[in-house]
Design brief:
Structural class: alpha/beta
Distance between the termini: 42 Å
Number of helices: 13
Strand content: 5-15%
Length: 340
C-alpha cells in the first residue's frame, strides 16, 4: 500500500514564541512553513503549493481571501484561536474548505488575565510602580476598592465566562450574568443569577465582557448601554474589540460616565497587535486617546500567552490536521448552520 504523503502546511501570522510549541506538536510529521505575514487577499498567493493553512485571530479569511485560497489549492484551514469571527464560514462551506478551531485551549489563561486587568486597574498598580520608581511613595492617587461584596456582571457565560464567575465568587463578589444560552446548572451550583442585559448594566460595579463577536454583539457596549451603568463602573473586555463602540467608550471615559476600562483587545487591532511598532508608531487617533486616558489599561491580546495555552493550541492545531490527513472529521470542525 502506498504510503500517504505528509500534509504541506503554511502557518500565517507565525510568532517566534509559538513556533517551538508548534514544532513539538508536529512531531516531525508534516512539512511546515512559518510566515510572519498576516493572511489577507494580498498574501493569499503564498499558499500556492500547500494543503493546509493555519491562521490566527488577526488574519483575514474573508470571502475574497477564501476564494483565492481555493484557487491556490487550499483544502483545509485550522485556526489557532477559539474565536472565528475573522473567517466567512458560509463561503468556506460553499468552496468545500473544511475549517476547524481550537475551542478549549485554556479558559483559565483568559479568565485569569481578565482578573489581572481588573486588579491592576482597581489597585492602580501601573501608576503605583511608576511613582515608586520615581521615589514617590505617596498614596494619594492610589485608592482602590474591595472586590468583596461588590456586584460583578458577566456578559457571556461560555467556557471563559464560567471560569471568571467562579474566580469572582472566590473573591466574595455577588455575580450576575446574561447570556442567550443560560446554563441553569452552572447558575445554581455557583450561586450566579441570570438577569437581563439592562439589569446587569444598572446593578454591576464591574462588567466583564466574554462573549463572541457576531452580528448580535457588534457594538453591544455603546453610549445607550453605558448610560445605564453606574458612574463608578469598571468594564473589562477579554472578548473582541468590536463588541465595544470605541469612540463612544472614549467619550464616556472622558466625561467620567464610567470609571475605568481594561481590555486585552482593541477594535482596530488587526494591523497592530503582535508586532513592534515602537519605531513606527501608527497613525491611529482612537488608540492614542485610549493610551492617554489615565483610567484605561490595555494589553496587546496577550491573555492566551501562557505555556499551557500555547501547548494546547499547538496540539489541537495538529490534531485537526492529523484528522484531515486520515480522512476523518475533527471534533473541532465548525459547521456554519450549527453556529448561526
Amino acid at each position: 500500500m502506498k504510503k500517504k504523503l505528509p500534509m504541506k502546511i503554511l502557518i500565517y501570522s507565525a510568532k517566534d514564541f509559538e513556533i517551538p510549541f508548534l514544532e513539538k506538536a508536529n512531531k516531525d510529521i508534516h512539512q511546515i512553513k512559518y510566515a510572519p505575514e498576516r493572511l489577507t487577499s494580498k498574501t493569499a498567493m503564498m499558499a500556492i503549493g500547500f494543503d493546509v493553512v493555519s491562521i490566527f485571530s488577526a488574519d483575514d479569511a474573508s470571502s475574497k481571501t477564501l476564494r483565492l485560497l481555493k484557487e491556490f489549492g487550499i483544502k483545509y484551514i485550522t485556526l489557532r484561536s477559539a474565536g472565528y469571527d475573522n473567517i466567512h464560514l458560509g463561503t468556506a462551506k460553499k468552496l468545500g474548505i473544511k475549517v476547524a478551531h481550537t475551542p478549549d485551549y485554556s479558559p483559565y489563561a483568559i479568565a485569569e488575565h481578565a482578573i489581572a486587568l481588573l486588579l491592576a486597574l482597581n489597585r492602580k498598580l501601573i501608576l503605583s510602580n511608576q511613582q515608586f520608581n520615581d521615589y514617590n511613595f505617596s498614596l494619594s492617587n492610589l485608592i482602590g476598592f474591595d472586590l468583596y461584596n461588590k456586584t460583578v456582571g458577566i456578559i457571556g457565560t461560555g467556557r471563559i465566562g464560567k471560569v471568571i464567575g467562579k474566580i469572582l465568587r472566590g473573591f466574595g463578589c455577588h455575580v450576575i450574568a446574561t447570556d442567550i444560552y443560560q446554563d441553569i446548572n452552572f447558575s445554581q451550583t455557583n450561586n450566579i443569577k441570570y438577569v437581563s442585559l439592562e439589569h446587569l448594566c444598572k446593578q454591576s460595579d464591574v462588567i466583564m465582557l466574554s462573549m463572541p463577536l457576531n452580528s448580535e454583539t457588534h457594538y453591544m457596549i455603546n453610549a445607550d448601554l453605558i448610560h445605564l451603568m453606574k458612574r463608578e463602573a469598571y468594564i473589562i473586555n477579554i472578548s473582541r474589540g468590536a463588541v465595544v463602540n470605541t469612540l463612544e467608550l472614549i467619550e464616556a471615559l472622558k466625561w467620567n460616565r464610567i470609571a475605568a476600562y481594561g481590555s486585552d483587545v482593541y477594535e482596530y487591532e488587526h494591523d497592530l497587535f503582535f508586532y513592534d511598532h515602537s519605531k513606527n508608531k501608527p497613525d491611529d487617533s482612537l488608540l492614542k486617546q485610549l493610551i492617554d486616558l489615565p483610567n484605561v489599561l490595555i494589553t496587546p491580546h496577550q491573555a492566551f500567552a501562557t505555556t499551557e495555552a500555547l501547548t494546547n493550541i499547538a496540539e489541537t492545531t495538529f490534531y485537526n490536521i492529523n484528522c484531515w490527513e486520515q480522512n476523518k472529521a475533527s471534533d473541532n470542525e465548525i459547521i456554519p448552520e450549527l453556529v448561526g
